[in-house]
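Title: [Solved] Histidine phosphatase family protein 3D structure

Original question kept below for reference.
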Amino acid sequence: MPGDVVTQRVLFMRHPETVSNTQHFFSGRLDVPLTPHGKQQRERAVDALVAFEPERIFTSPLSRARDMAEMAAERLGVPCTPLEDLIEIDFGPLEGMDVSRAMNEGLGFPWPVDSDGVSHPPEGAESFEHMRERCRHLLETLRPLTGRTACVTHGGYLRMLLATVYDIPFTRFWDQHVLNVSSHYFTCDGRTFALGGFNLTPEEVIAHASAPSEYDTRDIWGTGRRELS
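Solution (posted by the thread starter after getting help):
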């Protein structure tokens, strides 16, 4: 059963609130700043990453994710490595465009998916297939690692990551609420990734990572620091 043998615990966290989140424009590869509220969220998120105590942190190279990851890594004294695999989807011609304007111009998102399940992005934008391959490559990178790993990334990427782990079709993968500085938590037995927490707030991460739970009979979060195998 998932959790009987745990070789690695992995926390994936979304970046804080940005101006594109509040002004509603596409910002996949744009390096947009945080809002004042986003900066407050970042403080709570860094505390959560520190409480999780990863041996390593991987991050999207974009500043809205990287700055937070580097702050946590400095407090922990662990390496922080930017990975292109963790960057947000490339919206191509939609980058910087107001969402409502894009819809009016027939450039809606998510991309159309045909009857064969193939996505059709506008020219210059990243396909869902390419994004899924980035997720697969990241999972292959993580799979042989042990201990605890934190990854700081983006909302679109987290949706595709879950779709990749659980074979969710492109027509449905966007149908998830992924909040700013929320986290998805997985255990790994060296082969399979098992979801142990979805859309966790920083406070929930701190609670799960800091104290044993009477419901967590397999010690999935490892708060007892004991080997499950």
